[in-house]
Amino acid sequence: MMRKLLILLCTAGLLATGQAAYAASPSVQAGTEQVVVRGRTIPVNLVRVDLRDPMLALEPVTARSAIGYDESFTAIVERTHAAAAVNGTFFNAYEKAADVRYPNGLLVASGETVHSGTNQSLIWMADKLPVIRHVELGIRVTFVQGKQTSTYFPWGVNKYYGDSQTDQVVWYTPAMGRVIDYPNSTKIVIRENVVTQITEASVSVPGDGYVFLAGNSENNRRNLLPRVQVGDTVDLETVAKDAVSGESVDAGQWLAAIGAGPKLVTAGAVDVDFARDGFDDPKLTSQANRRSFVGVDAEGRLVMGTMDGVTVQQEAEAAVALGLREAMNLDGGASSALYAEGTVLTKPGRDLSNVLVVRRLAEPRTQLEVNGQFRPEFQGFIRQDTTLVPIRPLLQALGAEFKWNEQAGNLSVVKDGKTLTFTPDRPEVLVDGKKEALDTPPVIVDGRLYVPVRYVVESWGGKVAWDQSLYRVSLSF
Known about the structure:
Layout: E1 16-17, E2 22-25, E3 28-37, E4 40-49, E5 56-62, H1 73-79, E6 82-87, E7 107-109, E8 112-115, E9 117-125, E10 130-145, E11 148-152, E12 156-157, E13 169-172, E14 179-180, E15 185-191, E16 194-199, E17 203-204, E18 209-215, H2 218-223, E19 233-242, E20 248-249, E21 254-260, E22 263-266, E23 269-270, H3 274-277, H4 282-285, E24 289-297, E25 302-310, H5 312-321, E26 324-329, E27 338-340, E28 343-346, E29 354-360, E30 365-370, E31 373-374, E32 380-383, E33 386-390, H6 391-398, E34 401-405, E35 410-415, E36 418-422, E37 428-431, E38 434-437, E39 443-445, E40 448-452, H7 453-459, E41 463-467, E42 472-476
Parallel strand pairs: 1-28, 12-13, 30-42
Antiparallel strand pairs: 2-3, 3-4, 4-25, 5-29, 6-27, 6-29, 7-8, 7-21, 9-10, 9-21, 10-11, 10-19, 13-18, 14-17, 15-16, 15-18, 19-20, 22-23, 22-26, 24-25, 24-26, 27-28, 30-31, 30-32, 32-33, 33-40, 34-35, 35-36, 36-37, 37-38, 39-40, 41-42
Protein name: Stalk domain-containing protein
């Protein structure tokens, strides 16, 4: 049976509930600790995670793998094979319609923007250590027609501002997980960085592309839509800046991120400023409730936790007593949830729109750097002592031509008169028509073709370097 390749060129069981400590691996340690705040003893459910472990990966996960829905905490934990998890950012929990429970904070997964926003944010950096900082995250989109370019800054990513906002401009990614059918708007469909369709009809976000939505306002009809045509190439750039100073922030170094707040701890000291972080709801500013939080301890580990019946100020003081160097609040109350290695330490009182998950990987995950540029969106893995990475960044760096043969089910790569032909799941490659053995066969994962990186790079004279501490493969051509 033939297997269809989507070259994105970009190419369980029951859970126990309880409070007992549980630590299935040295990298994930969970249990209950007690701290004293202003004479009161506060039990805190905690999970400490060493994200330097190549068998673990941090990622915000949305309900039903889409934006705007909710799902039970245990269902999300089970389907993501989580080693640990905590509830995520705030969301529209009280909306009656089941498909508009949108998250309110920024979300980044595998280096790609899932949801834009301005928040205090936990960020998992390229050095595999977590940090917390106040950032604004968006994107810049440039349409190219020959020598003419048109650049736009969408209002948001995977958001919708209502039918009345006819001037809105929004960027949708496959993470949106739904048909884009909003009225009185024009949808620009992009596949493999090329505009393929412009329509007012409903469209799906292609797996190998995006949808750029422009409301049909007079402004957009006059100044935006005439400048975009089918066949234009599209350049996309993530744009981040410090929310206070406005200084540019390199989001190209982010592996994952989630925005919520307010900030609780900075440099080991209480740092609560509701006005700075954009909060005025008494449920947060003054009332006691169940709280959830994330932080970073003195050893650089991610810390996730929950505590009951505390104000945000008390939560911050408890975080300091726990030895956290940095910490921020997450969505709390009935949303508070915490899990580690088979045990639900804190059970939420409602379904959730998003969860911060530490995945347990089946194979060690590797980072990729190409010609000095870190590529967080193209992570690889190690199988049978061989590092496999997505082929797309290799093709880009090589400047090679390629063709997917649907009938034969293989991919041919051509450069400098040499042709390599890869067939998924076959431990061999055709080099100008002659078979050569591969230690590990190419494989398709989530629509991407992964190939043995050293074989491909060295076939065209490139060099491969390995950083053991980061599990990073660096390529130079």
